[in-house]
User: Which sequence fits this backbone?
């Protein structure tokens, strides 16, 4: 394959949550390939594990440069330059210090009782309304939304509003630039008003209140940084977890013999969650664009300064040179160094929370409904059209 001829990207999936055949072909024959985005921009798609690790950890591949207005991009609008996702060191380091404590293991463990209680309540409602349910609408979406609302201090009653804005912001080709800009503005305005209310109250221990008072060596978040952090945490806090759960639930429904041996076994549940994270195809892009700040040799290709580079984590997690029988879903694999949460500076702040939610909900679901099965032919399942690909519904019976 000619690495200089741009392939249309993203690739078309052959089925619900399956990976397009282009991924394996590129890993094998053209691991750093030129791709063309719907915006008209081009970039380099990186598909092998070691090359992806390099892009994630090498400071010459910049997230800040990718947020500049004239940078190559996949989506209609450039990312907000104020978000931590668009910062390089030392600015990223500054913001990370201000919020990292809120995502430590001890702080996340404080949420465990709420996660467990909410999961059981949702399962109770499913059971009472059964013997059928939609695992997306009845469990996979409301749980992470409830948890992120509890963590941030955002009213759960407002979920329909902010989920609608988030869906538009994460769309890929289905909304105009003006619609995306309007959704971004409305969500920012909503959180800005909420922050104003929280500034006038004392004693709240939610994350937004903590961020309002957070300081590190006298440094504080600006008002805009607070709002942008809220937007980032709210969307990232539920969207990817919901999509990953739906993806993993489908893999388990395909393998009833496997689920019978997992239920009630904490060690196997944890291993299953790690395999779900590795195997998930929720990220349509597979990663987030960086821009090279200087000429860099990568995977046998010379990436020029100013060119976009997309480290495809989804593809790296299927690299046959790293994961034995990589195309198979195998919770019992001995070696699973997946990159689902990234690596280096931008390693996901919410990794501990995502693992907690997925572990609790998978365990609870398999215990409560050991005979769970798909209620429709798999070819009837469909996915959302956005940066994060998720099943629109997952009908089940028991």
Assistant:
């Amino acid at each position: 394959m000619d690495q200089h001829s741009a392939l249309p990207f993203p690739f078309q999936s052959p089925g619900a949550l399956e990976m397009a055949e282009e991924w394996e072909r590129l890993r094998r024959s053209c691991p750093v390939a030129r791709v063309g985005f719907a915006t008209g921009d081009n970039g380099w798609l990186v598909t092998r594990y070691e090359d992806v690790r390099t892009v994630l950890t090498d400071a010459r591949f910049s997230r800040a440069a990718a947020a500049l207005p004239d940078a190559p991009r996949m989506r209609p609008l450039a990312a907000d330059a104020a978000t931590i996702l668009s910062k390089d060191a030392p600015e990223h380091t500054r913001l990370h210090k201000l919020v990292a404590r809120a995502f430590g293991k001890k702080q996340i463990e404080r949420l465990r009782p709420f996660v467990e209680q909410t999961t059981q309540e949702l399962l109770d409602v499913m059971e009472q309304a059964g013997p059928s349910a939609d695992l997306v609408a009845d469990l996979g979406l409301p749980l992470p939304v409830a948890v992120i609302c509890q963590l941030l201090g955002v009213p759960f009653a407002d979920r329909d509003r902010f989920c609608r804005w988030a869906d538009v912001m994460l769309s890929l080709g289905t909304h105009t630039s003006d619609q995306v800009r309007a959704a971004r503005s409305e969500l920012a305005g909503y959180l800005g008003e909420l922050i104003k209310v929280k500034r006038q109250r004392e004693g709240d221990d939610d994350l937004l209140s903590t961020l309002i008072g957070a300081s590190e060596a006298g440094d504080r978040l600006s008002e805009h940084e607070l709002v942008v952090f809220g937007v980032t945490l709210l969307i990232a806090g539920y969207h990817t977890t919901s999509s990953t759960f739906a993806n993993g639930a489908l893999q388990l429904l395909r393998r009833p013999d496997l689920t019978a041996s997992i239920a009630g076994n904490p060690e196997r549940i944890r291993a299953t969650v790690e395999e779900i994270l590795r195997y998930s195809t929720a990220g349509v892009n597979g990663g987030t664009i960086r821009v090279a700040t200087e000429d860099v040799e990568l995977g046998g290709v010379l990436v020029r300064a100013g060119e976009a580079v997309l480290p495809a984590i989804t593809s790296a997690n299927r690299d046959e040179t790293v994961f034995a029988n990589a195309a198979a879903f195998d919770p019992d694999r001995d070696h699973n160094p997946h990159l689902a949460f990234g690596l280096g500076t931008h390693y996901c702040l919410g990794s501990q929370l995502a693992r907690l939610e997925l572990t609790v909900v998978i365990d609870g679901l398999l215990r409560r409904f050991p005979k769970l099965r798909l209620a429709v032919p798999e070819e009837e399942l469909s996915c959302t059209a956005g940066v994060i690909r998720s099943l629109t519904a997952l009908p089940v019976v028991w």
